[in-house]
Write a structure and sequence with these properties.
The protein is α+β, with helices and mostly antiparallel strands and 183 residues long. The protein has one domain. The chain is built from six helices and four strands; from the N terminus they run ααβαβαββαα. It has a four-stranded mixed beta sheet, with helices on both faces. The longest helix is centred in the last third of the chain and has 23 residues. It is globular, with a radius of gyration of 16 Å. The model has no long low-confidence stretch (mean pLDDT 96). It holds the Pfam family DUF1415.
């Protein structure tokens, strides 16, 4: 496998071994089973190139309704969490500028994810940690429907925090490491 294929496989492993297996996102299993998740590795590693690729990915989703969602993976260029957060802000601004606000929303994941106001070593941060910096492009209409049909969407983050706290950092560090291919 080439580098992009490895990156995609490691991200698929994360979705399967973490997100779906432990029900971090109760909406993910259905899309995995349907094969409706697109995994796209960003070309380049500078902000301008990555933002253009992100915009292209939104256009891809516009043209491919059978693809429910896209995980836009950035293996290089945004290893620093705060640089990544700057990119997230620019990406959200770009979606608004390109009139995608209300069409798509972005969720973000990073190997060093840290919720605002939380210590870096708080286990709950692992609910948003991934093998690579990743933007999850979500169709707003689908998310609204999923939320409407979920019995208690407000309980999801609380359940995830309790689960992460119970399992602890070593469990999640090992789990995340197990997603990576042996090199």
């Amino acid at each position: 496998m080439n580098s992009a294929e490895n990156t995609i496989q490691e991200t698929k492993n994360w979705v399967s071994k973490v997100i779906v297996k432990y029900n971090i996102c109760p909406f993910a299993r259905r899309e995995v089973e349907r094969g409706s998740i697109r995994y796209k590795v960003a070309e380049g590693h500078d902000k301008a190139t990555v933002l253009q690729c992100l915009l292209n990915e939104c256009r891809f989703l516009d043209e491919h309704s059978e693809t429910e969602t896209s995980l836009f993976i950035m293996p290089t260029g945004f290893e620093g969490f705060y640089d990544f957060l700057d990119l997230v802000e620019l990406a959200n601004d770009l979606l608004e500028m390109e009139e995608y606000e209300g069409v798509y929303q972005l969720a973000n994941f990073h190997p060093d994810y840290c919720f605002a106001g939380e210590p870096q070593n708080e286990p709950s941060n692992y609910t948003n940690r991934s093998p690579y910096p990743t933007l999850h492009i979500i169709r707003e209409s689908s998310m609204e429907l999923a939320i409407k049909n979920h019995p208690d969407v407000d309980a999801i983050p609380e359940r995830n925090i309790a689960f992460a706290t119970k399992k602890g950092n070593p469990f999640f560090a090992d789990l995340l490491a197990s997603c990576l291919l042996k090199k």
